[in-house]
User: Fold this.
Amino acid sequence: MRDDALCAALEYCGIQANVESRERHALIHGRRLSIHFTDGTQVSVVTDEGMSYWTVPQALMRQSVVGFDMDGVSAGQLGETLAEIRISVAGSDLPTLISTDRTTQTSGTEPSELVDAG
Assistant:
């Protein structure tokens, strides 16, 4: 359901995507987001600390900012809810490393793809 809901959220925003999550034991310490464009270009973003580096600001932590009723909700409905969330995000006081890489594929094109590494 998680992958389907994320895919639905991206489609709601006009982005065609396939989403693939992996189990934590199959992941490196950091997290990689790979985006494959239809022209064959691939962009990868690797975060050293994964996505946990970014959090809800301390002032909002005690408030229930977003609630999800998962009972009887389709992945499409959940995706629309995810796409409409508007919330501030804060980083840590300490810096983190973010690495990017861009490659171009020469053997044809592939559909756009988003890989969520957890």
The radius of gyration is 16 Å. Helices lie at 2-12, 75-83. The CA atoms of residues 27 and 94 lie 23 Å apart.
